[in-house]
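Practice problem: predict the structure.
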Amino acid sequence: MTFPNTSAIPKLTCAEEFSVWRSLVTMHFSPDLLDDSAVDMQARHIILTTVNMDIARYLVQLKTAKEMWDALHGVYNEAATWSEPCLDEATEDLRQWYKLDPGEFKSFDSFIWAYLREFQRFRNDGSIDGDEEAMIILLEKLVELFPRADIFHRNIEQIKKGTCDKTTLPELIGWLYLHHRDGLCESYGWEN
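Answer:
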């Protein structure tokens, strides 16, 4: 059995990350099918490889992916629900998202989590529609200090034209993680 590559999914470490984490892992399996034994093994692998070690230590004691999923929901779902802000708050929050500074973070993962949290919030309240805008904003944020800025500029243009091979925000993050993480960590002084 082959397992999907989950390296682009930042590890779940706290309740604030749960709704984004849930959105990313459910791209690899459907929670409605967790009773199926074929889905169970793959889902257990995905869950255990995308949570931090402290959470995994607890989850490995559970027998099925369904039990793991239910346990995670029981612990994190309450804290992960977003309240819908009023229009003025949403507009101000959107401005803050645009101002999110990669240099203020300690690692690639911490920046990506913050970015994804804000993206998910704006998608949920309808302030942003689709991944394209979020993909462009992310690349524009990272281009400033990155020595190979031409690659990011080319991808920005391709996204605007609809010709980019990365069509979703998770795909773009996976590409950044696999191909440019070390360079970004060096450029922004992030822990590697």
